[in-house]
Amino acid sequence: MARELLKGNEAIAEAAIRAGLQAYFGYPITPQTELLEWMSHRMPELGRAFVQAESELGAINMVYGAACTGARVMTSSSSPGISLMMEGLSYIAATEVPVVLVDVMRGGPGLGNIAPAQSDYNQIVHGGGHGDYHTLVLAPATIQEAIDLTVLAFDLAEKYRSIAVVLLDGSLGQMMEPAELPPMRPVRQTFPAWAATGAVGRERNVLTSIYLDPPKEEEANLRLLRRWQEIQSHEVRFREYFMEDARFVVVGFGSAGRVALSAVRQARAEGIPVGLLRPISLSPFPTRQIAALCERAEAFLVVEMNAGQMLEDVRLAVNGKRPVEFYGRLGGVMPFPDEILGEIRRLAAGEASLEGHPRDRWLQRLTGSN
Amino acid sequence: MPVQGRVVISELYCKGCELCVGACPQKVLRLSTERITSKGYHPAELAGDGCTGCGICAVVCPEAAITVYRQAVRRPTAAVGA
Amino acid sequence: MVVEQIVPEEIVYQRPRSLVECATHYCPGCTHGVAHRIIAEVIDEMGLREHTIGVASVGCSVFAYNYFDFDWVQAPHGRAPAMATGVKRVLPDRLVITYQGDGDMASIGMTEVVHAAARGENITVFFINNANYGMTGGQMAPTTLPGQKTTSSPHGRDVELAGYPIRASELLATLEGAAYIVRRSLHDPKNIRLAKKAVRTALEVQRQGLGFSMVEMLSICPTNWGMSPNQALQWLAEKMIPYYPVGDYKVSASVAQIKV
């Protein structure tokens, strides 16, 4: 198929459709509304299910119902709407039905604004809904990646009977780039054996998240945990740039990683031996890869559009062996390459420290307070 | 001949709620004072004759514990030797 | 000479196939059991057991899925109509029902049921109204009557502080997407039979794709009302029916043509 100029939100919607999406339930919220609108005309056109729900709460529960039939189903929202979905996500995780969720992050907390941010990292990667569960989280940095990861999300969700989240920020949702959509996959015609579809000629299936007896609940939790371990072994994804001889490592995901790449290129032109590790799967996190880099890296710089959330996962991976510095912008402000270049130069000049917390040092520098 | 009925009330399900006792038009149901179900309820039972198999007890029973039988009376449509 | 024949015993009534052979956890005399029974009878009579998917809610009936022998999914509190929407939109030829109580449908889930009805979703909601929150021990519900004592309105519902009960059937009947909205009662055999007919009509409405249907069933809660089951029937008749009259609140033109 040919490359076309595509808008992020619409590309993700169409990619899901090409992947055999059977049902979409959503609600308008900036900056992802175009995804809903695309679905509102394409899904009925193809004879597939579409409902604009009464709220994100309604939407995630419609998704939950459809997922219980084994259908390929998804919803999308942005930060405040995602918060409304947390109840549903916990239930979906506990019932072990596959669901794809797209979160196009915006400034917060609260109603915040409609500018791009990455501040849902903790909510999405470290839970959000109550209880012990993990979701697969994929973070694209380009529209092509958003397309490819959306298709992958459905396959992973089904393979592991899990929630797979495509996590991006408003700028990627809104921007337009040349990208290629995959060919149309046919919608599946069969149901998984576990699904609630009408008990024709079989014992009934009951899909519930209730385990009233604590030992049974523990057993259910252990099952989720073992599945998570399997996911951790097989589904880590990341990309490395200029890493072969890098002595300094920048870690950034999504748009922050993309901006950091520009800074890394400029730094290389100045002769600084710096590279970028861009996690693509935030969950499972490339912990081992980062830990292994401690052998040859002198210092790490984490760049995020939040107050340091992935920062903590990087620090855990580095485990005190090397200094980790932080640079973040908040509230919908996007960092520019020259800001990150300035940070890389500081690292190269030996200003990285093992003392204290990188967030405190960054805050002092950002706000000029001393 | 009066229609004769019979009910069998399952001890697996009956909770001794007495809704059938109150609803029976013939007033022929009562809670047993001698039997106790495995859950500790006194189950309902027929108290003597008079059940017509009307099925009203089964209509009000919340546990679907009652099976209702009736001896039917049929009049053939053609008279014999009339 | 007319000869009367006495034929051997025939079965007038037996337990419906769609009920699992399992004792329920409901209190003695709780009319959840009657509602379950008549729904099971109707599904058997329509031959739809294998094509039904139930959406269980949260309340005393949270384990409804243990009692009916067909596929079930479990919804978070209040969300059953939204889950049912998801199921029905993907599997439109299945019978999709929800089974909800006062708190689930009329409190936390009010938004979901209003919008499912407004959208005219081809699902059937069974709403069990017993004027309190049963599962959690008898608190005030949106359906609790003025002056009615509950564990969270210990001096009786004070309309100054807690407002007035919601009449859900009347409210939902204002929506054009709602095709069949009726209130029935389970307090005596005649009303139970009428309730069963309403259940049958509602499921026919769904089978024929005529829109959203709901059967509200006034029910007793002897344990939380603090009375015996037979006393509770009287309380329902005397106190609840005047506030929640039995009747047909919405019967669309196409539904009016149905004969059951």
Automatic annotation (TrEMBL), chain B:
Name of the protein this chain belongs to: Ferredoxin family protein
GO molecular function annotation: 4 iron, 4 sulfur cluster binding; metal ion binding
Cell division keyword on record: no
Domain 4Fe-4S ferredoxin-type positions: 5-34, 42-71
Cross-referenced PANTHER family: ADENYLYLSULFATE REDUCTASE, BETA SUBUNIT, BLR5484 PROTEIN
Pfam families: Fer4_9
Taxonomy, superkingdom: Bacteria
Lineage, opening ranks: Bacteria, Bacillati, Chloroflexota, Anaerolineae, Anaerolineales
Matching InterPro entries: 4Fe4S_Fe-S-bd (IPR017896), 4Fe4S_Fe_S_CS (IPR017900), Fe-S_Ferredoxin (IPR050572)
